[in-house]
Amino acid sequence: MENLLSSAQDIKIIFFDIDDTLRVKDTGYMPESVHRVFEALRQKGILTGIATGRNYYGVIPEIKALKPDFFVTANGAYVIDKDHEVIYNNPLPKQTVESLLAWLSSVDSDYIFYGSDNVVASKWSEVIQAAMAPVYGKLDVIPDYHQTHDIYQMLSISDHDDTLVLPDDLADKVRMVRWHPNSCDIVALNGSKADGVSRVLASLGLSPEQVMNFGDELNDLELFKFGGISVAMKVSHPDILAVADYVTDTVENDGIEKALKTLAIL
Length: 266
Hints:
Blueprint: H1 2-8, E1 13-16, H2 32-44, E2 47-51, H3 61-64, E3 70-73, E4 78-81, E5 86-89, H4 94-106, E6 110-114, E7 119-121, H5 126-136, E8 140-141, E9 153-157, H6 168-171, E10 174-180, E11 183-188, H7 193-204, E12 211-215, H8 221-226, E13 229-232, H9 238-243, E14 246-247, H10 255-262
Parallel strand pairs: 1-2, 1-12, 2-3, 7-8, 12-13, 13-14
Antiparallel strand pairs: 3-4, 4-5, 6-7, 6-9, 9-11, 10-11
Organism: Pseudolactococcus paracarnosus
Protein name: Cof-type HAD-IIB family hydrolase
InterPro entries: Cof, HAD-like_sf, HAD-SF_hydro_IIB, HAD_sf
């Protein structure tokens, strides 16, 4: 703990996941302590950022109202600052998108497109509603959205999603990261929240040792291994708990504020 407290004094920027980290995904509950945390960090001159699998469209108003300095969205593929200046823009190649669509069709899977400012579905079904509605509400159905928009991330989604395996010709271009029993994020092979955060650090002249991360799910794994201090929420995936530097309480029990106080950042 002594080493952790010492490292915490070097932190210059803190990134937060959204779902089940800043707020409870299924209920939308976000404690008042989160507002206190962001204001206190601002007063101390510590920068803040959101690092999420959602795209910017999916960053809900109450999160934007916290006025973070940076948004690392679509698992690192689209990164902007608080003034909407683009720091990093890495859409999937159009041929890769076409190949993914052909494969998903062959395995009888529906799909979700993430643009920079929209999330759309290939259709609307009970399976898609169960996975997506708690996060985004009902999505527009635009199966050919990719023809007129850049795609930063795709989702496979079906009642047999856990059986899907990328073919070799796609496995060297993209990877699948499970976020729901019936759905996986499909991101660029080297794409991750860590990649997006690294672009922010480079723009600021900061090192990985100067960043702290809060998260709970598998798409936080690369970021937790990236550097600095990683804090897992109590309800985190076991793989996240295994690599975290510190485990804090749940959203409902003010886990973020408790961790920052324990580590003497606040």
